[in-house]
Amino acid sequence: MKYLHTMIRVSDPEATVRFFELLGLREIKRFDSEQGRYTLIFLAAPGDEAAQVELTHNWDEKGYDGGRNFGHLAYRVDNIYETCQRLMDAGVTINRPPRDGHMAFVRTPDNISIELLQDGRLDPAEPWASMPNTGVW
To answer: Into how many domains does the chain fold?
Structure first.
């Protein structure tokens, strides 16, 4: 067996694509179905195109809530502090800061949790070491 993708339903595909681009993913293909009234957008990290996220946008949908029932997507990052800073600079809330130099949680515009993991651990650094959680992760 081979992992293909994880699908999440999104209400604002362009905002969600921008969010995942901030994480470092890139759109690799898109499919619009006029008959089915939906759009499928596939994203992946450069060099890891086999592990994809499928964003499904149902055109007539009026908004999703309760994204926590999904769980989370997890990505290993090169530098968790730099990644979290880039996300914060773009207005993304860091729900669980990387106080331990290893793990953080953020959420997509549709409230899906994203776990960020450092390969190994970086030494604790400010402002992350003393930053409190800002929400459910």
So the answer is: 1
